[in-house]
Design a protein that fits this description.
four-stranded antiparallel β-sheet; elongated; two-stranded antiparallel ribbon
Length: 110
């Protein structure tokens, strides 16, 4: 991912694909008071600074393309970030992907 100046906007495209073809979006949760739908979350975090940069709820049936928008860190330079893909209905499905974002000097606007 590339940045456009400290504190500038970043748009990150994420492609998701299920390994299995679930027939139902409902999870097995017999103690839950009503049908529990499967919920997926995409988060971008900076673990070094303990900061959450973006969070978005995603419905995943088969394949999905998601755009995450967030504000780049203020400091110029390389930032090691983590993309988290988390499920609120199943244990053991969460995934983490580390990536770097390089923030450059802001350009002067004439």
């Amino acid at each position: 991912a590339g940045g456009g100046g400290g504190g500038g906007g970043v748009t990150m495209s994420v492609k998701l694909e299920r390994d299995n073809d679930a027939e139902s979006e409902h999870v097995h949760a017999p103690s839950y008071p009503k049908d529990k739908e499967e919920g997926w979350w995409l988060l971008v975090g900076d673990t070094k600074n303990n900061t959450l940069l973006s969070i978005k709820r995603v419905k995943l049936k088969g394949k999905a393309g998601v755009k995450l928008e967030f504000t780049a860190p203020e400091a110029v330079g390389k930032h090691d970030l983590t993309l988290y893909f988390m499920c609120d209905g199943y244990a053991g499905c969460d995934q983490e992907y580390e990536f770097s974002l390089t923030v450059g000097e802001a350009m002067d606007e004439d």
